[in-house]
Sequence to fold (431 residues):
Amino acid sequence: MNIKIKSLYNYIFPAMGGLFVTYLYNVVDGIFVGQGAGFAALGAVNIAVPFITFVVAVAAMFPMGGATVVAIRLGRGDKAGANHAFMTAITLTALLSAVLMIIGMTFSQQIADISGAYKLSDTMRKMSADYLFYYTAFSIPMLMSSCLSVFVRNDGSPVLSFAGMCAGAAANIFLDWLFIFPLGMGIIGAAVASGLGQIFSVIILLLHFVKKKGRLRIKPFKIDFLLIGKICKRGIPEAISQLTTPVTALCYNLMLAGLIGDIGVSTFSVLSFIYSLANAILSGVAQGLQPLWGNCYGKHDTKEMNWFFRCGIIINLVLSIFIYGILFFFDEPVICIFNKDDSLVQTASMALPMFALSFIPMALNLIFTAFMFSTKRTAQANIIAISRGIVIKAAAIFCMPLLFGGNAIWIAPLVAELFTLMLAIGLNKIS
Fold:
């Protein structure tokens, strides 16, 4: 097998699988909650999504920024510098997760209300606060599992990285069933099951460093504020890119709670679960290519770097079209996985084909963003990420229903992604 194709296989599939499994935690929660506690509980989980995914997006800055610095330094042969960046990144992740745990548990009801719960029924409002409280109690293992997965993968053990995430997902699925059905813990059981599953992932991922399988080591290090700034600078585009999920969820929750009410929020809950899995697959391709781009950049191998870029574009385009085809032809069966309520199925099956069209330009935007920040074009990557994740997306969600009627809200992500894609192509040509 060609060595470049083998590199693609070895890095993309574990990265894609690892992210898919990571997002599967919330999706499995949604399936068990929807089937075991009803569509009101499904909507309550969705109310919690903006804060949870905001936390994940902010925390992604450290492992992705650190991984970029590590890859470049390893490409230059600077093993000590790479390890310093690694230790700095995991320490920052641990500190941030502890702070977010305290905030999430202390202000769970207030956070739920800011996310749109104040416009909903008392039942859904309380459920959303309960889910947030227990889910954020496990912030440290939740964020550390994602962080360790990135470094284990980049340190030459992509299979172990994937295995760690799979073990956590398997534990989560079993515990979801146990807590929601036999024990009747409802939405609280789903949150606790997710947290315990993340602990399993962390334990397995730590084996890579305990057994000293790669070049990175867990050991004492000195605080270097210049290095912290460099890691944050390299990781900001990825964090902003991931902010598209909480921004989209928050804007949709606020709009739908007023336009449609509980059933609207529950409908978007189903769509957001589907979106998160599609985003995981497509982002996984971009994240899997990141160490390859970083090493090429460190070695000044422009030809091979551009070859990997073209491969990323083609792979993500094919995957996004394939995903859309499945959702277009099997919309109702996919929706019924979460809940079979007639009103929910009818509303969601109407919205899904329009909503899922955005996956195709989104796939390309993810490649452009990851490629630019992996090759130190941070300013361009930030522009793409901010426009896609925050500015254009929020404007489209709020403006489309006002200009073209309520149903136009479901096509707002497509409009935002297309505008962003045009911007990304322009920036790539002039940079």
Observations:
- The two ends are 34 Å apart (CA to CA).
- The longest helix spans residues 39-75.
